[in-house]
Design a protein that fits this description.
By secondary structure, the protein is an alpha/beta fold. The protein is built from twelve helices and five strands. Helix 1 (11-24) crosses helix 5 (109-120) and helix 8 runs antiparallel to helix 12.
């Protein structure tokens, strides 16, 4: 029997997704969780969970923090992102960070069945739109991003590096031995200098950059 965990803070959407899963995976046993901590509790209890379906936008987590938390604590459990985001860059970054698939909330049941079966078979699922777009050609955007990164102080670069690792502000504060208020100020400056509006966007924009090398060069 396939064991599925649905992680979403909206009860109505959990109900809808439970019904969709039941329709495409005959006999599946479905557990629900309304947040990351609740999901971790279920995964601790249900060690034979075959797949987790995770919404990106939930209270208490920003960007890919929920995905990274589940991947770090339960690396054996494939995580499929189920999200209203349909930006190809978000999908690609989710997979780069360890997601086993990305399913837009607008997906229909036949495609959902295909996606879940692919992941249960050990494959990675991305919507056809990702393959259709192909690799993005290089252009001036990378140069502009490099110029904005050059404005970051060494400490801000370290904060950005930890944001990409999915660390929360309190974890960053602990690692850098500074206060959470200082971390929040650094995060605000990082977002301002990169000209982005969220931690998720900062992660996506810098996805292909080797921040560890940048930090080492700044400190060298």
């Amino acid at each position: 029997m396939v064991q599925i965990l649905i992680v979403d803070d909206h009860p109505l959407f959990r109900d809808a997704l439970r019904g969709a899963v039941a329709a495409v995976l005959d006999g599946a046993e479905v557990e629900e969780a309304d947040g990351i901590e609740a999901a971790c509790a279920v995964l601790e209890r249900q060690r034979n969970t075959d797949l987790a379906m995770l919404d990106l936008g939930m209270p208490g987590v920003t960007g890919f923090e929920g995905l990274l938390a589940l991947r770090n604590r339960f690396p054996r459990v494939p995580v499929v992102i189920v999200s209203g985001h349909e930006d190809v860059r978000v999908m690609e970054e989710a997979v780069r960070l360890g997601a086993a698939g990305f399913v837009p909330k607008s997906i229909d049941k036949p495609v959902l069945a295909q996606a879940l079966q692919a992941v249960l078979n050990g494959e990675v699922y991305l919507p056809p739109v990702v393959a259709a777009q192909g690799p993005r050609p290089p252009g001036g955007k990378e140069d502009a991003l490099a110029a904005r990164l050059a404005e970051l102080t060494p400490q801000q670069l370290r904060v950005l590096q930890m944001i990409r690792q999915g660390l929360l502000n309190k974890q960053i504060a602990h690692e850098l031995k500074i206060g959470e208020t200082t971390v929040k100020a650094h995060v605000s400056e990082v977002l301002r200098k990169l000209k982005v509006v969220s931690r998720t966007q900062a992660v996506i924009e810098t996805a292909k950059l080797d921040l560890a090398a940048l930090v080492a060069r700044r400190e060298g």
